């Protein structure tokens, strides 16, 4: 593997944005924005879905310590059901951008949908988390912060296996919903069983 690209526009302060938990049946969607320094190097960095849980856990502190700025925002189930998951993901990424301590000059977004943010130009990149380091870094932060939260929520709502499935639509999760009903954290606009 030749590695991820450091940036799309050299000499421009770019923020990479991504989300985690979009396809889950419960819990928030986690959205992250990351600005990496121009000399950032990390050969192990990749799309969070292609990395083991252990590798993501190792990379998270490295990203958080070395990034010029980073932020993670959770958009809760209620808002997901109100505005739909796509809008919740875009809203969450924009809120993460709001929280950055540095204003980016360009935004790189994983996927093919985004909405104008302030007056900052943006580029959507399908499979961007496997293409650009800043998006991959955002992918890892979004995923690890959400997984950590789902582990805690699993204790509050035992029986659904969230410590294992993190809220994704596994057969066991759907079976648990059929047996125990839904929790306040389940997304009512999603097909749950």
Order of helices and strands: EEHEHHEEHHH
Poorly predicted runs: none
Mean pLDDT: 95
**Gyration radius, rounded:** 17 Å
* Lateral arrangement of strands in the main beta sheet: 3-2-1-4-5
Instruction: Tell me the number of strands.
Output: 5
Question: What fraction of residues sit in β-strands?
Answer: 15-25%
- What distance lies between the first and last C-alpha atoms, to the nearest angstrom? 39 Å
Biggest pleated-sheet summary:
5 strands, mixed
User: Count of helical segments?
Assistant: 6
**What percent of the residues sit in helical stretches (DSSP H or I)?**
25-40%
Gross morphology: globular
**How does the helix and strand content classify structurally?**
alpha/beta
């Amino acid at each position: 593997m030749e590695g991820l690209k450091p940036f799309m526009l050299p000499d421009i302060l770019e923020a990479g944005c991504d989300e985690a938990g979009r396809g889950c049946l419960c819990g928030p969607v986690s959205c992250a924005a990351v600005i990496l320094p121009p000399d950032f190097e990390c050969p192990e960095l990749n799309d969070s879905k292609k990395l083991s849980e252990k590798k993501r856990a190792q990379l998270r502190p490295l990203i958080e310590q070395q990034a010029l700025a980073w932020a993670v925002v959770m958009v809760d189930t209620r808002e997901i059901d109100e505005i739909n998951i796509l809008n919740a993901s875009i809203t969450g990424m924009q809120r993460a951008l709001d929280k950055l301590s540095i204003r980016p000059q360009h935004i790189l977004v994983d996927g093919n949908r985004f909405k104008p943010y302030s007056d900052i130009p943006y580029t959507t990149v399908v499979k961007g988390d496997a293409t650009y380091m800043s998006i991959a870094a955002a992918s890892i932060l979004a995923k690890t912060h959400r997984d950590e939260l789902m582990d805690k929520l699993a204790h509050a709502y035992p029986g659904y296996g969230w410590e294992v499935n993190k809220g994704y639509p596994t057969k066991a999760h759907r079976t648990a919903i059929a047996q125990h009903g839904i929790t306040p954290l389940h997304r009512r606009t999603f097909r749950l069983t």
